[in-house]
Task: structure prediction
Amino acid sequence: MKAILVREFGGPEVMKLEEIPGLQPGPGQVLVSLKAAGVNPVDAYIRSGTYARKPALPYTPGMDGAGVVEQVGSGNVPFKAGDRVYVEYPLTGTYAESCLAETGSVHPLPSNISFAQGAALGVPYATAHRSLFGRAQAVAGETLLVHGATGGVGIAAVQIGKAAGLTVIGTGGTEEGRKLVMEQGADHVLDHRAPDYLEQVMALTGGKGVDVILEMAAHLNLGKDLTVLAKRGRVVVIGSRGTVEINPRDTMSRDAAILGMTLFNATPQERAQIHQDLVKGMEKGLLKPIVGREIPLAQAPQAQELVLQMGAYGKIVLIP
Result:
């Protein structure tokens, strides 16, 4: 089968499309014929060798995918050949024609969700869900600011937040992106490049500030986030590309909390509950991933360059 292989850490050019031996599922495993694979910023960080977790070389990138069950291993496997599924954190990377996954990493893909949309679920939607409920403990009636709402995680956070009864303020750097965020149900959408957007946040909350902020670029925004939090507000740091200086007094005066988040730290029980909730939300039509671009698998280097650019619009997926 064809797969992208990384034989050394480095720039996007180290990813090569190669022919590798086919996969066979072991006990409790599922072999999935992939129709689409999600591209996440963390894929690029890992490939560069700068991420805290480094896989053994060579490896195939990719943590998200969707497709059809091709074969199941022995044991109690609740899937059969032909089932539509999506996967998250499989045993082998999803930048390939097939992947192997343990049963707990495979989830039913509702019929109203396409394979490309399914590839946008595993990391982005689980990240948004765990950030909102596992870390921030958000509840209905609170106000949520999604700081950078136009990408895969941001769109997921808007949809999940609205479904949970939160008032959602989203930000985006382009007119096209802001229109998308509004279409996904945000109550208010702001241009985070406007010099007065923080004043607009405070005005929208009657001067109270927001209860929860999901932050995609803490290296740029964390210090500013703390100034628009309500009392006992929480900032969840989802993404950061560097260090940042903050004024601790902005946390003290509000009893505020800065919370880190990575899906790698989720327990198996957490992951199971997250994906049960996501499947229910999709079946009810409340959650619907937005795919911004579909790119051929051989162009994985270009896809990873695009996913790191500012002005994200939906999810980038690779098509084997």
